[in-house]
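Ticket #4471: complex job returned nothing on first submit. Input attached below:
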Amino acid sequence: MDYLDFIDSVQSLADGVLFGTTYALLGIGFTLIFGVMHKINLSFAAASIGAAYASLLILAGVKAPPALVFLLSAVCGGGIGALVYLVGFRFIPLANPLATLMSTVGLLLLIDELIVHQTEGVPMNYPALFSDVMIRAGPFNLRGDLMFVFGLGVACMLLLLLLLYRTKLGLATRAVSQQPVAAELCGISIINVNILTFVITGVVGGLAGAMIGAAIGMLSPLLSLPLTVKGLIVTVIGGLGSIPGAIIAGLLVGGLENLFQFFRGVSERDLYIMLLLFAFLVFRPGGLFAPKAGRD
Amino acid sequence: MLELKGLTKHFGGVRAVDNVDLTVAQGEILGLLGPNGSGKSTIVNLICGLFPLTAGQVMLRGTDISELPPHTRVGMGIARTFQNIRLFGQLTVWQNLWVAQNSSEQTGSENFLRRWLGGSRHARAEVDRALEFFDLAHKRDELAANLAFGEQRRLEFARALAAKPALVLLDEPAAGMNAEEIDQLDARIRKLRGEGMTVLLIEHHVELVMSVTDRIAVLNFGQKIAEGTPAEVQANPLVREAYLGTATAA
Amino acid sequence: MDFYLGLIQIIGVHTLLGLSAYCVLLTGQVSLAQAGFFAIGAYVAGMLTVLAGWPIVPALIVAALVAGAMACAVGFPALRVKGLMLVVATTAFGEAVRLFFFNFNYQLERGGFKFGPHGGEGFRQIRYFPEHGWSTFDVMLFIWVAVVLVMAALWWMDRSRAGAVLRAVGEDELAAQSSGINVTAVKVTAMTVGGVIAGVGGGLFAHYTTHIEHVQFGVVLATFAVAYPILGGLSNVFGTLLAVIFIQGFLIEGLRFMGDWRNLLFGGLIVLAMNVRPRGLIDAHTTLALKRIFRRKESAGA
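Support reply: We reran it on our side without changes. The output follows.
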């Protein structure tokens, strides 16, 4: 491989890592819900894209600054998150994990269809910040919009970690995830914690959706399934219930995805991601940050 | 019948079981006492093979079973009940007993396929007999999840016996029972001994333990601190200390 | 008339897909890999009849065995992961199979035409049925013979000790192990049987549609595969059949007149169904109640 190819491959890796923050946020969403409720919310990626769409549709006639669009996407994400909880989880007895799995599948289909309905299947352009900025660092180009996405993602993660580990709400969330009955007996309302968890992950998801739209340049309902699969892969590689794991795994998958694409092309790219997952499942099934083994 | 040599289990930094030696003679009823967290349930889990041991050996009738998977140990004659009942809730009472019957001796048929698919008439008769013995025959088609608590406990016990084990490990079978039910439990445990089984009983209910066991071993913090007849153990000051704390606390 | 026969064919094939997931779900493993085994069955059966000139029944049998072998291979590593991780792992496997066929080229030339799988274009001209003079009715009958055989086998299994053992493992693995059940053997067997059934379904699918491509075997199909038994209820095979009839027949075809709203209704209906009847259409209670109606014996006491 000659020097130019090497530069290009590192470039794709770097771009991929920057984009990988969106995967990281999706992974965080999946892992947080799983950590608190021990259930999978398969509609999460779709809801995130849905929130981004919502922000576009709400501001349809208005020439709004991109920052407002992003903010609105986050807010919509939170709202959709609460709705998902109410409709998909609240009334289904805890002992039925299959039922909640199916209900989230139903929600995924519902959200996708709503998007197709409202937009008639036509992809929509998404505003990006700093898209015309290009920083040169030696032989490499750093795209401004990707850098912004990365920065936003990092800020979001830091805020989330702060929320979980430095606030009372975060403490309550962690308590519920470890011992729901005991937490309830301590006066913590499980329903409220669950709703708040969904709202928080919804906000994170809405932001992720906006970031994906900004990085790719447009939104399409076809995004939800591949994003769901990637998000789940990131969650598993990072370790179920681990937020730092999801972060690192997201960056890893983002970077490697671009690298695989550079070397082997788009059609084979995802195959290698699957192989990566299988490698983890065989050699390190707990993921990067496996949850600590309990006493039974 | 059962011998534990230097049995040790660490969970990360916690020494749940620390170098425990214990022998259970054929046909005896051994009680295992100790405050909560002393390692009793962990020992039962280790004997059954539900998790790997850190050090030591488990010997059944002279054979080292420390490396064998749980279902093989059951096939060799060990059975257990669970502290928090673990029935197959969506299966009927009858089915709960039926799945537990699988050592070839008592399905009456050596053919693996037949055993898997139907079991013999003999096997089915055995299940009915067990239901009668435990007073559950009238509930045979009820889903296990719908039984009353006392009935569930009896079913748990019945399921442990369904595989006709030589050694039965009872993990707090009396929890939540009233006096009448405990008397029945006492009688059933004695009947087991009468049929040649060996019993390891973990229990907090002092009267039951004193009444029904031949010998008692006491654990504290994962270590065995006393062993002997019920009378000997009751008089042992270390045991008093483990349960009640030292004299100054009075 | 052909339209309805076609619908019945689809219902038949999807029932096989659903039943393959049913087997695996009984043991508590949520597998989104069934579409992958389905795909393997489809391509293998297609290649055997088109490229090697085999008759349909041996081709289906071999396709089923290959899919089953693949399932067995998946079954062992699947043991190491549970819950969400198994869902993801099986999804990834299904996707890997799809991507494999996306990149798979194996064509033979015959009489100026090229036959065989051709990457993204798929596998066209699987024309065994038309070439041998089978009418749509014949094909439908053939499919349903397979469905009835599989359902009968699973029904019989459900009533036997094997069925109770499978469900015991699905209920509580720890208790099952402690009751002497070899959980590993049970789970891998269930996965293998599921693979075989999916293989048969896939082979039949390839032949009645005559043209298959990788897109058809994606996550959506995998989700449908588990949706059927979950929505129908896991207590017996008829639940799955009912769910397939309902979803394919009623919703997709019957609501055609609703046009775009049909898919919205679909998603919404699933959500509603899971809230109202989390254990599926035919759950354990319903099954027991039905049994009591059919059994003339009087239950003793109480």
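Residues 183-209 of chain C form the longest helix (27 residues). Closing as resolved unless it happens again.
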